[in-house]
């Protein structure tokens, strides 16, 4: 079974802090994604990566950056956390195109 | 902005009842996926539909992709408490790696 592991289940950070969310997958998948999930809005794509050191902006990249130095690891960075970034963050990986997305269990981030 | 509207947003029913969840858009999708998400976990894929008009069955769950590939429905027969969860549809656009997720339907099945 594919395993996508997000390093933290819950995080509480202060406004202005730099925040790192880590995601690791164990199936040698090419594609990895970061989404945020908010009630009534569904999942919105922040960034995705289709190869090491490659990244593409999703629908809501403002205030975020990403890093993919190794194939198995995709990091989401909040350069200066703000309260409107309080959300559930979900990482996903995908093998071949058209195959299902495999999600981690999410990181619930609260910015105070 | 592409939108994928799901209805209803919330549904609370008794065990044994039938229900249908709808997923509608003005965009044409190359494929559409349905996921179920339980509290504290990430979404898990239920099914992928690819062809317009396609119907897929997964035990008591029936999924249909609209002829024009703009909409989909999920029908559950004789719902059980284990069906409780958040149901999400996700449409794939022709542009690679681009999935649009629906707003979600939160289902609660009472014993």
Topology summary:
The complex is a heterodimer of chains A (112) and B (111).
Chain A lengths: L3 E3 L3 E4 L5 E3 L1 E3 L5 E8 L3 E10 L2 E4 L6 E7 L2 E6 L8 E8 L7 E2 L3 E5 L1
Parallel strand pairs in A: 2-12
Antiparallel strand pairs in A: 1-4, 3-9, 5-6, 5-10, 6-7, 8-9, 10-11, 10-12
Chain B lengths: L4 E3 L2 E5 L4 E6 L6 E7 L6 E6 L5 E4 L2 E5 L5 E6 L8 E8 L6 E3 L3 E6 L1
Parallel strand pairs in B: 2-11
Antiparallel strand pairs in B: 1-3, 3-8, 4-5, 4-9, 6-7, 7-8, 9-10, 9-11
Task: Please characterize this protein's 3D structure.
The complex is a heterodimer of chains A (about 110) and B (about 110). Chain A has strands at about 5, 10-15, 20, 25, 30-40, 40-50, 55, 65-70, 75-80, 85-95, 100-105, 105-110. Chain A has about 110 residues and is an all-beta fold. Chain A has one domain (about 5-110): Immunoglobulin-like (Sandwich), CATH 2.60.40. In chain A, the strands form three sheets. In chain A, strands 2, 5, 6, 7, 10, 11 and 12 form a seven-stranded mixed sheet that branches. In chain A, strands 3-9-8 form a three-stranded antiparallel sheet, with no helix packed on it. In chain A, strands 1-4 form a two-stranded antiparallel ribbon. The radius of gyration of chain A is 13 Å and the shape is globular. The mean pLDDT of chain A is about 95. Chain B has one domain: Immunoglobulin-like (Sandwich). Chain B contains no helices and eleven strands. Chain B has strands at about 5, 10-15, 20-25, 30-35, 45-50, 55-60, 60-65, 70-75, 85-90, 100, 105-110. In chain B, the strands form two sheets. In chain B, strands 2, 4, 5, 9, 10 and 11 form a six-stranded mixed sheet that branches. In chain B, strand 7 (about 60-65) and strand 8 (about 70-75) form a beta hairpin. Classes of the chains: A mainly beta (about 110), B mainly beta (about 110). Chains A and B meet through strand 5, strand 6 and strand 10 of A and strand 4, strand 5 and strand 9 of B.
């Amino acid at each position: 079974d594919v395993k996508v592991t997000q390093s933290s289940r819950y995080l509480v950070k202060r406004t202005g802090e730099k925040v790192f969310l880590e995601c690791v997958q164990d199936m040698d998948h090419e594609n990895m994604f970061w989404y945020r999930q908010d009630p009534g809005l569904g999942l919105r794509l922040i960034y995705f990566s289709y190869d090491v050191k490659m990244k593409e902006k999703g629908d809501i990249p403002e205030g975020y950056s990403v890093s993919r130095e190794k194939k198995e690891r995709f990091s989401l960075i909040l350069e200066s956390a703000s309260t409107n970034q309080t959300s559930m963050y979900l990482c996903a990986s995908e093998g071949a195109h058209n195959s299902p997305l495999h999600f981690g269990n999410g990181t619930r981030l609260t910015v105070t | 902005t592409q939108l994928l509207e799901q209805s209803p947003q919330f549904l609370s029913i008794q065990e044994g009842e039938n229900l249908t969840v709808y997923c509608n858009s003005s965009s044409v999708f190359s494929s559409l996926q349905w996921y179920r998400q339980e509290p504290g976990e990430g979404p898990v894929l239920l099914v992928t539909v690819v062809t317009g008009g396609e119907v897929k069955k997964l035990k008591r769950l029936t999924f249909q992709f609209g002829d024009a590939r703009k909409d989909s429905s999920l029908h559950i027969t004789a719902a059980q408490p284990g069906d409780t969860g958040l149901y999400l549809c996700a449409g794939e656009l022709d542009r690679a790696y681009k999935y649009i997720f629906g707003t979600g339907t939160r289902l609660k099945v009472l014993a």
